[in-house]
Write a structure and sequence with these properties.
mainly alpha; globular
Length: 81
Amino acid sequence: MAKIDPKNADELLKVVSKKLNVPVETLRSQLEQGKFDAALNNMSKSDSEKFKQVMNNPKLIEKIISTPQAQALYKKLTGGK
């Protein structure tokens, strides 16, 4: 799989950080470390439980990222590459 253009990743981080009300650098640092504390702390209990279930199930992650919607988002983030 191709790498995401850093510019596109920055834009996505800005959107997510604004939605979660978490500073971009905090979010970036946690994601780079494989932590999702900022995201989980700002989700409802049911959403955070669903997120944890997905993150602990590689087959489910693979299924999600193979959906047409995920592929379209990936193409948009990578500039269609």
